[in-house]
Design goal:
It holds the Pfam family NAD_binding_1. It catalyses: 2 Fe(III)-[cytochrome b5] + NADH = 2 Fe(II)-[cytochrome b5] + NAD(+) + H(+). Residues 44-148 form the FAD-binding FR-type domain. Its main location: mitochondrion. Belongs to the flavoprotein pyridine nucleotide cytochrome reductase family. With 280 residues, the chain is an alpha/beta fold. The chain folds into two domains: 47-142, Beta Barrel (Elongation Factor Tu (Ef-tu), domain 3); 154-279, 3-Layer(aba) Sandwich (Rossmann fold). The chain is built from six helices and twelve strands. It has helices at residues 3-35, 122-129, 164-175, 199-208, 235-241, 257-269, and strands at residues 47-58, 61-67, 82-88, 94-99, 110-116, 135-142, 154-160, 183-192, 213-221, 229-230, 249-254, 277-279. A six-stranded antiparallel β-sheet has the order 4-3-6-1-2-5, with helices on one face. Strands 10-9-8-7-11-12 form a six-stranded parallel β-sheet, sandwiched between helices. β7 (154-160), α3 and β8 form a beta-alpha-beta unit. The model has no long low-confidence stretch (mean pLDDT 92). Bound molecules: flavin-adenine dinucleotide. Flavin-adenine dinucleotide (FAD) is lined by residues 82, 95, 97-100, 113-116, 118-124, 162, 165-166, 254, 280.
């Protein structure tokens, strides 16, 4: 064996070894990161997230996309829970309100909020003023409700306006989990057709999972051709479109306070017990 051959062999072994070490390190880092995605939320302190995209969906609704600290970070929000957002109203006073992202922890690197902005709303003002590059202060998770697959056989849901987002989060989590067979029956009320949020996504769920998900839209001011409900959500609509009272079902509600109050009265009159009901 000559010297040159031995030297070449050494270099080859060295390079081969370095590549192997690197491969193991990258593999370990990948395994670690895929097993333990970085959670972005802090329950004790507000954290700032950068607005990277703002998409106007209608005259008073926009979808806000916020960046998470790294492309593989997750928000870290359990299904059924929400976040607190802090901002300033038109008077410069601090305001904190709850919001439920339409993204789940299966969406990495970013999270999205669909926000309805009211002309006189305090936090609405803050969102209306937000521009790409601005930061939003967020704290969480928050909330008394936490969803576990198999918790109930079926959910009934009554949502009004922007109260759809907690329902959307729970529904999406159920439908996107092939092992979760929970059924979801949603009644979604709005004033006009244009007010309906996330309609494309909701109709997509109904088309893709017809045996697991049904949706019944109710409008105060329906368009001329309309096959949904008309007026306010009635006792009869709940009876027809939600699962009947039983120990293995639950009816969730989220909407403006007068609607929540009316729904609670209807549900109680229909025989649903307090264990079967939850208000976000
Ligand atoms: C769990 C949960 C999740 C939620 N998720 C979302 C979400 O994803 N997206 C979303 O858009 N909303 C969501 N909401 C609603 C949200 O928290 C706020 O209630 C909403 O954004 C309105 O807040 P605001 O401060 O802008 O309005 P507020 O200032 O509280 O006003 C609310 C309403 O009262 C009216 N109003 C205000 N001031 C007056 C006044 N002086 N006189 C008469 N009327 C007045 C406003 O025009 C508006 O119609 C959620 C609520 C809950 C409980």
């Amino acid at each position: 064996m000559d010297m040159e051959y031995l030297q070449n062999l050494d270099v080859q072994l060295l390079v081969g070894g370095a590549v192997a070490v690197l491969a193991i390190a990258v593999g370990a880092a990948y395994l670690y990161s895929s097993k333990k995605p970085k959670v972005s939320l802090d329950p004790e302190n507000f954290k700032e997230f950068k607005l990277v995209k703002r998409l106007q969906l209608s005259h008073n609704v926009a979808k806000f996309t916020f960046e998470l600290p790294t492309p593989t970070s997750v928000l870290g929000l359990p299904i059924g829970q929400h976040i607190s957002c802090r901002g300033k109203d038109s008077q410069g006073e601090e305001v904190i309100k709850p919001y439920t992202p339409t993204t789940l922890d299966s969406d990495v690197g970013h999270f999205e909020l669909v926000i309805k902005m009211y002309p006189q709303g305090r936090m609405s003002h803050h969102f209306r003023e937000m521009r790409v590059g601005d930061y939003l202060a967020v704290k969480g998770p928050k909330g008394r409700f936490r969803y576990q697959p198999g918790q109930v056989r079926a959910f009934g849901m009554t949502a009004g306006g922007s109260g759809i987002t907690p329902m959307f989060q729970v529904t999406r989590a159920i439908l996107e989990n092939p092992n979760d067979k929970t059924k979801v029956h949603l009644i979604y009320a709005n004033v006009t057709y244009e007010d309906i949020l996330l309609k494309e996504e909701l109709d997509g769920f109904a088309a893709k999972y017809p045996d697991q998900f049904t949706i019944y839209y109710v409008l105060n001011q329906p368009p001329e051709s309309w096959n949904g409900g008309v007026g306010f959500v009635s006792k009869e609509m709940i009876q027809t479109h939600c699962p009947a009272p039983a120990s293995d079902i639950q009816v969730l509600r989220c909407g403006p306070p007068p609607m929540n109050k009316a729904m609670a009265a209807h549900l109680e009159a229909l025989g649903y017990t307090s264990e079967m009901l939850f208000q976000f």
